[in-house]
Amino acid sequence: MGKLERHATISDVAALAGVSVGTASKALNGRGSLREETRVRVREAARQLGFEANAGARSLHSGRTYTVGMITTDTIGRFSIPVLMGAEDALGAGEMSVFLCDGRDDPIREQYYVRTLLSRRVDGMIVTGRRTEARAPISANLPVPVVYAFISSADPQDCSVVPDEAGGARKAVEHLLAVGRTRIAHITGPEHHNSARVRAAAATERLGEDGLSLVAPPLFGGWSEVWGRQAVGILLAGRTEFDAVFCGSDQIARGVCDALRAAGRRVPQDVALIGFDNWDVMTEACQPPLTSIDLDLEGLGRSAAEMLLAAINGSPSPGRHAHPCRLVVRESTTVPLT
């Protein structure tokens, strides 16, 4: 009968690192005021031996469970999944596990998950969703820190990490100006939608700084290709002269591109076109490939998780924190060299 494999113990790690068991424990659990070279030496010994600290023992030592709850209202996951991936990157580096709960826009279901997560003694929570509008705090007087990611809390004392949509819209307009376009139209989503209003206002403001204005008032409609095609029809029927279109979403931009092609307008030679969200399903399917503003949702998720970890460790960051967007340039705004 074969010998049972013996798992490495904290004593083995301490012996290999040349330190006491107490020092090895502190180094692996991030406690105590140890020299960095000691921590590194202990971690390297643990890696060589394949030693894994027991989560239950860590919990007893620290009063923490090394778990975080994430509650989302984004049932499709288009926005919450990248945020979750970014958050897991940061939390995984801190050896934290994540419980994901789908609230489905149902307040009763959401409160059930809050109670469930608290019963599991999570160290903190991240709340996310598919819209950037401020929402009511998920619960009052929670015993653990909460960070809102992508969505924001209506309570200014809560910590919210949101995309800098206004900054993204300004980058879109600045790019169009940089490629020589000055007659810019803006086609976006429903006027009651916070993102549509913020992006339209920022685009208008940025043009005004150069003494310019949109060629027509912002065209508010749906977040769809159908609306993009209809809006181009409105511009053409009104004989509006335009050499660029900034769209509030990539879906709208793809519809705009199709309509411009059908009308004999070349993209980007006649009309430069830029979207928002950098959704690869749309940007890559568009012909030509679509220039867009990327919300950097994974980076936003990482920032939210890092702020939650800091809050768990006693350093909260209350308030609304804007995470920068970035411009991704493709062929829809740049004429290829011949």
Automatic annotation (TrEMBL):
Record protein name field: LacI family transcriptional regulator
Residues of the HTH lacI-type domain: 8-62
Keyword Isomerase: no
Pfam families: LacI, Peripla_BP_3
Superkingdom per UniProt: Bacteria
Source organism of the structure: Microbispora corallina
Gene3D superfamilies reported in the protein's UniProt record: 3.40.50.2300, lambda repressor-like DNA-binding domains
Keyword field contains Transcription regulation: yes
Record keywords: DNA-binding, Transcription, Transcription regulation
Stored InterPro entries: HTH_LacI, LacI/GalR-like_sensor, Lambda_DNA-bd_dom_sf, Peripla_BP_I
